[in-house]
Amino acid sequence: FLVEDIRNFSIIAHVDHGKSTLADRLLELTGTIDKTKNNKQVLDKLQVERERGITVKAQTASLFYSFQGKQYLLNLIDTPGHVDFSYEVSRSLSACQGVLLVIDANEGIQAQTVANFFLAFEAQLTVIPVINKIDLKNADPDMVEKQIEKVFDIPSDECIKISAKLGTNVESVLQAVIERIPPPKVHRKNPLRALVFDSTFDQYRGVIANVALFDGVVSKGDKIVSAHNQKTYEVNEVGVLNPNEKSTHKLLGFLGLLHMEVFNQRLEQEYNAAVILTTPTVPYKAVLSSAKLIKEYRQKEITIINPAQFPDKPKVTEYLEPIVLGTIITPDEYTGKIMMLCQARRAVQQNMMFIDQSRVMLKYLFPLNEIVVDFYDSLKSLSSGYASFDYEDAGYQTAELVKMDILLNGNIVEELVTIVHKDKAHTVGKTICERLKDTLPRQLFEIAIQAAIGSKIVARETVKPYRKNVLAKCYGGDITRKMKLLKRQAEGKKRMRKIGNIEVPKDAFIKVLKTQ
Ligand code: GDP
Ligand code: MG
Q1: Structure confidence by residue, pLDDT tens digits, 56-70
Q2: Which of 87, 108, 98, 11 is nearest to 392 (CA)?
Q3: Is there a contact between 322 and 282 (Cβ–Cβ < 8 Å)?
Q4: How much is the pTM?
Q5: Which residue among 11, 16, 102 has the greatest number of ligand 1 atoms within 8 angstroms of its CB, and so is best to mutate?
Q6: What DSSP character marks residue 29?
Q7: Alpha-carbon distance 412 to 56, whole Å?
C-alpha cells in the first residue's frame, strides 16, 4: 500500500452510544469479518469487557475497502469508552489522523463526548461527527446537530446520521473516512521512527507491538532499537492487524474504582492470579524542606505514589495534589444538587453553559483524589443516571495533606493507608471504619477498627465477637463428613487475608472503598 492510500482512525463515543456496534458494521462492510456469524462487538473480546459491556483495552483492526476503483487500507484503532480510561484514549489517538465522534441521537452530547472531542481536537485530528441510533423512536438528530454546532463549532452539514444497529448509512461513514481524514505523513526515506501504541507478548512469537509508523520502513530481519530503553530487537514478522490477534496486558496504575475492579477481575480471569488491591491513590508531590533532604532524594520535589511512603511535615515545606478539569452534562433540574456535590468535593466552578433548552454543561476544577473513588457513582445516583462526567489533567495545586492509617486491633492495614485532605480526615476515617465494620465477618474475639493520624485516633468502631463452629452441626462421629466440612472451611479461608490474627475477606477493601 502507498502511504496515500492508508487511513488511521479511531471511534470515540460516550459509553453506550454505539461505538462497538459501529465497529462491527465497519468490519462486516469491509469483509473483515463474516456477516453471517454472530458478530456482537468483535473488538470487545476480552471476557470482562463482554461481561460489563465496556471496552477497556485498545484493540486494532485493518480493513480493506475499495472506493472509486481504488483499494484503501483503513486501520481502525479502538479506544476504551469509559471515563476511567482517558489515558488509554489519548495513547490510541496519537496513532491516528482522524476520529469518528459517535453521538446517540436520543441522548445527545454527553461529558465523555466533550472530553474525547477535545483530546482529538488538541491532537489536531480530523473529527467526523456521526449521529447514531436514528432508528430510535425518540431520536432527535436535528437537535443533536445543533448541539454539535454549539459545543464543537462543527457545521451541521458535516454530521453523518446513521443507525449502526440496522446498518443504515454506514457506507457513507467509510467514504467520509477516506475523503476527510488525511493519510499519515510517513517519510519512507528517513530512518525508522514508530510509536508503539500497544504491545502484547506471545509465548511462541515473542513481543507483538502495534505500531504507528512515522518515518522509514520496517521489514522482516531488521534490527530495531527502542528509544525508551535502548534495547535492540530483531523483527521476525511484520503484519497488519486483524481482530483475532490475541491480547494480554501490562498494568497502567488505577485511575478509578471501576478501573480497579476491572483489572482485578481481568487478572483473576486471565492469569488465574489472586490479587490484593490497595486504595486507589493519586500521585501527590512534596516539596522538600532542607538541602540535606534534597541531596538525599536527588530532587527538590518528590512524587508520592505509595501512601505508606508519605513524608511527614518537618521534612516537607509544601504538599501538592493533582487537579483535573471535569466536565459534567446534566438535565437542568439536577444542576443545584450537582453543584452541592461538587462543592463538597472541594471543586471550583470554572464555567456553566446551556447546550440546548434543557441541558447544562458545567466545568469544575477538582482535586483528583476527590473523584477517583465514588464521585461518578454519586453523580449518577443524584441525577437518576442522567448526568455524565469526564475529566482531563489540569496540573498540581497546594494542599494541606495528612496520612491516615486504618488499624485492626492495633495493626495497620497497609491496603487502607490513605492520604487525605486535613479538613476531611475525620469524615473519611469515620466512613472507612463504619464500612469496615459492615464488611468484616465477626470472629471469635472483639475487633477494634480505628482511623489514626500519627498517634491521634480520629474515628473508631467495634466488631463484636461471634462463635462459629462448623462442626456443631455434625451429630455423632461421622468422620468423613467432619473432614469434608473442615476442608470446605479451609477453602473459604484461602480467599481471606490475615491481618494480625484477623481474617479479612479479599473483597472487603473494594466494598469499603465503594459507596452503598
Ligand atoms: P459502546 O458502549 O459505545 O461501544 O456502545 P455499543 O455499541 O455497545 O451499543 C450500546 C447499545 O446501543 C447496545 O445495546 C446496542 O445494541 C445499541 N445500539 C448501538 N447502535 C444502535 C443503533 O443504531 N440503534 C439502536 N436502536 N441501538 C443501537
Ligand atoms: Mg463498546
Answers
A1: 444 567 788 999 999
A2: 87
A3: yes
A4: 0.64
A5: 16
A6: H
A7: 33
